Amino acid sequence: IATIVNNDLLVRGAVIEPSPLVIGPAKIAIGERSIDDALKEYLPKLIESSRHAEADEAMKVLNIVQALAKSVKGEEFKII
């Protein structure tokens, strides 16, 4: 999930399969770029800096992301 705070993106996520990974938390300066462009530029770095985790830890992060997404019903958000 990417959240805008003071013209920065705060990014946090996880992957369960094929191998559990935790991504972030990370802060990306948006500057004059669009959110999509900032994510496209930094996504490889975020994935590279992710760390292997136990499945239950990755699932905990995914549950947090899901709870945040549900709390912003009506707001625009993307799941990538």
Automatic annotation (TrEMBL):
<protein>
    <recommendedName>
        <fullName>Thermo-DBP-RP2-like C-terminal domain-containing protein</fullName>
    </recommendedName>
</protein>
<dbReference type="InterPro" id="IPR049325">
    <property type="entry name" value="Thermo-DBP2-like_C"/>
</dbReference>
<feature type="domain" description="Thermo-DBP-RP2-like C-terminal">
    <location>
        <begin position="1"/>
        <end position="66"/>
    </location>
</feature>
<dbReference type="Pfam" id="PF20754">
    <property type="entry name" value="Thermo-DBP"/>
</dbReference>
